[in-house]
Amino acid sequence: MPVLERIQAEVENHPLVLFMKGTPDYPMCAFSSRAIEALRSAGATHVHTINVLEEPEIRANLPRFSNWPTYPQLFIHGELIGGCDITLELFESGELGRIVAEALSE
């Protein structure tokens, strides 16, 4: 499967997808660590994660797919939400909890 089709399938088949450096238990950059921490604090009991350090094709092509240059990248129901800063802003405003609850209840 071509990499852009694989990325499309990942974001369509999981309500919450975080493309990150490392894993939720062992994030490999501070931005990925803060994003997964915010998601967990917002009630995301399950987030489908892709470790872009172990997926070089995805790491190279996701910015082209999403038009977003950096990692992590959070997708909810196939839509790019943003990176670490946007995730943290949504968490601090209380919106992330609402978005996560809606995504996981569907």
UniProtKB/TrEMBL annotation:
Gene3D superfamilies: Glutaredoxin. Residues 17-81 form the Glutaredoxin domain. InterPro entries: Glutaredoxin, GRX_PICOT-like, Monothiol_GRX, Monothiol_GRX-rel, Thioredoxin-like_sf. It comes from the Bacteria. Keywords: 2Fe-2S, Iron, Iron-sulfur, Metal-binding, Redox-active center. The keyword Protein biosynthesis does not apply. It holds the Pfam family Glutaredoxin. [2Fe-2S] cluster binds at residue 29. PROSITE patterns: GLUTAREDOXIN_2 (PS51354). GO terms for molecular function: 2 iron, 2 sulfur cluster binding; disulfide oxidoreductase activity; metal ion binding. Belongs to the glutaredoxin family. Monothiol subfamily. This is Glutaredoxin.
